[in-house]
Design brief:
The protein contains seven helices and six strands, in the order H-E-E-E-H-H-H-H-H-E-E-H-E. The chain has 216 residues and is α+β, with helices and mostly antiparallel strands. The protein has a single domain, classed as 2-Layer Sandwich (Alpha-Beta Plaits). Strands 4-5-3-6 form a four-stranded antiparallel sheet. A two-stranded antiparallel ribbon has the order 1-2. It is globular. The termini are far apart.
Length: 216
């Protein structure tokens, strides 16, 4: 599987209290302070996927096809204006895949500013937009991931929620007010059980140190 490097990088370079911004081309990283009043909730839908058997490689090929059409090295080099100017010339599916990547790159930069400015409402709004794009343009969500994200947004203390990982099943993440995180978890578990008919596992997390070596 032609996977990326995000999981490996955060595991090695994570720092307590910080989100990590990674430039996948230059491999440059930047620590972004996570406000103390925010917490990340990992939401396990109780469904599983196998990335190797998924459409991950297909999505990558579609993105590469869009990049080749615009004669750019990668879609990060493509502006949204240029993409829309050639919409009618592109296969509709390839256009949607490219639109997700271009807008998601913009959302990442906006999310960093939201954290730095202490505006969790904006950060949550961007997470919601990200999920919508992953669902509709990249088409890697699932019924369970959609349901748990919707239930999270309706639960107390939640600023925003989206699927995470390779898609099609697995987990979502939510940005939560730390002072209401326990209340959020209980209500989300109740709502998801009602609408999905299965039990979700909610893990309240804070950014921590990456892998370290110890002498025994």
């Amino acid at each position: 599987m032609n996977c990326g490097i995000m999981d490996q990088t955060i595991s090695a370079l994570g720092q307590a209290g910080n989100a990590l911004f990674l430039d996948c081309r230059s491999l440059e990283t930047r620590q972004v302070r996570m406000p103390d009043n925010l917490q990340i909730a990992v939401m396990d839908t109780g469904t599983r996927h196998e990335l190797v058997d998924s459409a991950y490689n297909e999505r990558r090929l579609q993105c590469e096809k869009a990049a080749a059409f615009f004669e750019v090295k990668a879609l990060r080099d493509l502006s949204l204006e240029n993409l829309f100017s050639s919409e009618k010339e592109l296969d509709p599916v390839v256009f949607r895949r490219a639109r997700h990547v271009v807008t998601e790159n913009q959302r990442v930069l906006s999310f960093i500013k939201a954290l730095e400015n202490g505006t969790p409402e904006k950060a949550g709004e961007l997470m919601n937009e990200s999920h919508q794009s992953l669902r509709d343009d990249f088409e890697v969500s699932s019924e369970a991931l959609d349901l748990i994200s919707e239930c999270a947004r309706e639960s107390p203390g939640c600023y925003g929620a989206r699927m995470t990982g390779g898609g099609f099943a697995g987990c979502g993440v939510a940005l939560v007010d730390q002072s209401r995180s326990e209340e959020f978890s209980k209500e989300l578990e109740r709502k998801y059980k009602t609408v999905a008919g299965r039990t979700a596992k909610i893990y309240l997390c804070s950014p921590s140190e990456g892998a370290e070596s110890f002498k025994i």
